[in-house]
Amino acid sequence: MTQSVVVQVGQCGNQIGCCFWDLALREHAAVNQKGIYDDAISSFFRNVDTRVVGDGGSISKGKISSLKARAVLIDMEEGVVNEILQGPLRDVFDSKQLITDISGSGNNWAVGHKIFGNLYREQILEKLRKSAEHCDCLQCFFIIHSMGGGTGSGLGTFLLKVLEDEFPEVYRFVTSIYPSSEDDVITSPYNSMLAMKELNEHADCVLPIDNQSLFDIISKIDSVVNSGKLGTTVKPKSVITSGAGAIKKQHKKPFDAMNNIVANLLLNLTSSARFEGSLNMDLNEISMNLVPFPQLHYLVSSLTPLYTLADVNIPPRRLDQMFSDAFSKDHQLIQADPRHSLYLACALMVRGNVQISDLRRNIERLKPTLQFVSWNQEGWKTSLCSVPPVGHSHSLLALANNTCVKPTFMELRERFMRLYKKKAHLHHYLHVEGMEESSFAEAVSSLSALIQEYNELDATKSMPVQDVPRLIVAV
Amino acid sequence: MSIVTVQLGQCGNQIGFEVFDSLFSDSHCSQGLCSKRENEAYQASCKERFFREEKNGIPIARAVLVDMEPKVINQTLSKAAQASRWKYGQHACFCQKQGSGNNWAYGYSMHGPRHEESIMNLIQKEVEKCDSLSGFFVIMSMAGGTGSGLGAFITQKLQDQYSNSLKMNQIIWPYGTGEVIVQNYNSILTLSHLYRSSDAFLIHENDVVHKICAKRMNIKQISFSNINQVLAHQLGSVFQPTYSSEGSFHYRRNPLGIYSLGPEFVWSLFTTLLIHAFLFLTGDLMEHLVPHPEFKMLGVRNIPQMSENSLAYSTFTWAGLLKHLRQMLISNAKMEEGINWQVRPPLSGLPPLGKMSVNKELHFNTSIANLVILRGKDVLSADVEAFKDPALYTSWLEPVDAFSVWKTQRAFNKYEKCAALVSNSQFLVKPLDMIVGKAWNMFASKAYIHQYTKFGIEEEDFLDSFTLLEQVVASYCNV
Q: Residue B66: in which H helix or E strand, if any?
């Protein structure tokens, strides 16, 4: 069994990270009734004897003594991290695995990337190496950050290069929160554009998410749950946004519900690697199957169901509804419509009491409504994990490598150009040593090249699928 | 003579468990419909073939379990331990921490060489515990990374180290509509490599077994467990002991190869070995089913296929069963339902119907060689003459050489009568052609190739594989 390390950068990254650890503990507590430290828990947590001072405290087997998250927390201002360390999760984090500063990055990618990057490079390396040493077999780094700010965006992407150099064999999965169109940070287009170039070059896999979509999903859930339209009641713990029953008791902040969705995404992504099932899917299989060409590594995700009804007997129709929903644009975690764009590859990760026949039936049913690229007409990757998420009897995570991600990038480019043409706020960036106008030009051309690739693929959408002529052999 | 099974990857281990379980349950089944002595001979033969004895009496499967990550092996071992009727050897597993990521190149080029010594040692230990080794079963899937890539590597090493023993690969073909996106690449790489080092492949298609579960067994929500049990039943009906010749009461010693004849009891090792030596007959089975190295793909059909609940209410005649089985063979039917009765063998004396095009509907399935295995009541009266019709076969073997039949009175798995057919015929041309076609389309766009070149499998290796398989398809079509 392998381990993963979560690196949470910036305010957004740390807040989401906090929700993630909360849910992860809840999930493992529900599955692991006997309190034995097993392979599944070890994928995200260390077992530590807190009486031992220094590093020697790791316990590899036996009863759980004290769980420590395999996490590195980075923020250039102290507020968020301090709050975490004073909150109910304080014991889960290793106080040595933090890097903080006081002044913050001022929503400036260049400050995060160049200034703080250089300043903290050694420290970052040291913390990462430490967390890697604590792992028996490190498989993956999960980086959580936002694109629009300064720390998450700048320092977060600086990290990627460091990880690539130091740990070339370990996968880098990045969960990136893209700014919505009504984002209140004026310079977010600059920050996002500069960060995109780094993601293009140094990430193995990116899961783009935007706040607007998360917000829409929450509104949808609220309206259904509170409207009383449904005859039966919704199981409270099953709502994908709920932290009910977890260590954190209430939703104090407005973003909590949204962060929970992302936390669920990460848990479901890793479920088949941690828990048993009849068709396992490890993390290295994600990039193997979903990344046909190295640059096209952006995966649109959707989670269903958003809530479970109290009715225990789930008729097949409801199960099928779960599959249909996964492809609807209302359930995607970014503003995208995969149904009307071109699929390069699609992964369905199912958890709970679902069998291969249910999966096959739904693939057969949905396939005619979706368009797959000519060379990957049956591009489905499937996995079945026996352990459902807490509060649900089954769930589905769909990951799509689909050209529907293009509009997000095009819009980003447009918003960037609007600012850049007027050279608005540019001096804040150019003041930073190492930043020049060419940095911006390179970032734009990197993004444009990516958009062009998607355009070329889209152009093949309406063409009839022709088989390539086969080799002719003499018999 | 014993068979050592190597279970590779998630699929191999999950199926392997069901196969051993099915073999064990059947051999201990009380409804054998035969005399006590026959039943005991059957049990002993099955046990020697697939299990070995331990001091406290629980039989141990002659198997080596290999996987690159621990979850499935742990599950398999605990399932066996829970059932407590038989178990796996204590040190029969090889496991790593990180899987092959569905990457054939990783399984073949990285895991293979890295773990060659450890795995071959485990196999050697298991072989040493056999009084005499008949050969190896390697159970693997084609779609993933470990079963396919590491499986191809290990089969090659088995060929190098045990060139005198037979190797049969049980290969699982994935569902056509995708379980793994790069399954077609993994499949062509596996098949082309195995063609060079395996003696025969027994192929099972997930789509076919799934349909059998749905239509014949009436299972509503089909799980991999169901599928694997049907598969295990098919394999058991082929490899459980059978008589070595008509009328004698002694079980065939070598399920894969040499027949033995003789009046001595099966468990009198010395005498049977002696008889082996003196009464070695022509009729090496592998030689018959795989007469030419270009034709190694074997398919299995069995009949009747039905759920256990329906068993009690059905009776069959051998004539009926054999008629259906024969039609399944010549019309290339995948299961007992929807058999196309229009298809007829070409009239003898006339030239064959020309080159087979993979698309022709009513095509008659020409066989290279067939083996029919009959188990159950009144088996001695079963008439298999219709299978000896020369029109069924290619012209280069006489039907007497191309067709073999094994029989036993002892019923299998509570089926009063059951028949299995292992066939080297055009059964698998169409599925193979489809896989090659899809892989070729993907290869033309170069999609995913970077994942393979990262671990040393270059475009050249792909091209070599394509060439070899196109050759195989063409050869089978021209039969």
A: strand B63-67
Q: Which two tokens stand for residue A210?
A: 């935007």
Question: Which residues 197-226 in chain B show a CB within 8 A of chain A?
Answer: 210, 213-214, 219-225
For A26-65, letters b (16+ CB in 10 Å) and e give bbbbeeeeeeebbbbbbbbbbbbeeeeeeeebeeeeeebb
pLDDT at B152: 95
Q: Which domains does chain B have, with CATH numbers?
A: 2-236 (3.40.50.1440), 243-276 (no CATH), 284-425 (3.30.1330.20), 431-477 (1.10.287)
Taking the Cβ of residue B442 and every Cβ of chain A, the question of whether any pair is shorter than 8 Å is answered with yes
Q: In chain B, positions 53-72, which contact chain A (CB-CB < 8 Å)? A: 69-72
The mean pLDDT value for A194-208 works out to: 95
Helix (H) or strand (E) holding A45: strand A45-47
Residue type, B109: S
Predicted TM-score (pTM) of the model is 0.89
Residue B376: predicted pLDDT: 87
Q: Would you call B447 and A2 a contact, using CB atoms and an 8 Å cutoff?
A: no
Strand order in the sheet with B87-88: B51-52, B60-61, B87-88
What is the SS3 assignment for B196?
helix
Query: Which of chain A's residues have a Cβ under 8 Å away from the Cβ of B478?
Result: 475
Helix H, strand E, coil C: the string for A313-381 is CCCHHHHHHHHHHHCCHHHECCCCCHHHCEEEEEEEEEEECCCHHHHHHHHHHHHHHCEECHHHCCCEE
Rounded average pLDDT over B275-302: 64
* Contact between B69 and A279 using a beta-carbon 8 Å cutoff: no
Pairing of strands B60-61, B200-205: unpaired
Helix (H), strand (E) at residue B423: strand B417-425
Q: Has residue B279 got a pLDDT over 70?
A: no
- What is the reported pLDDT for A235? 62
ipTM score of the complex? 0.88
State pLDDT tens for residues B153-190. 999 999 999 988 888 999 999 998 878 999 999 999 99
Do the beta carbons of residue A350 and residue A396 sit within 8 Å?
yes
Q: How far is A332 from chain B (nearest CA, A)?
A: 22
Q: What is the least distance, in Å, from the CA of B86 to any CA of chain A?
A: 22
Q: Per-residue pLDDT for A450 more than 50?
A: yes
Q: Cβ contacts (< 8 Å) between B452 and chain A: which residues?
A: none
Q: What is the C-alpha separation between B414 and B30, in angstroms, rounded? A: 9
Which residues does chain A have within 8 Å of residue B182's beta carbon, measured at their own beta carbons? 288-289
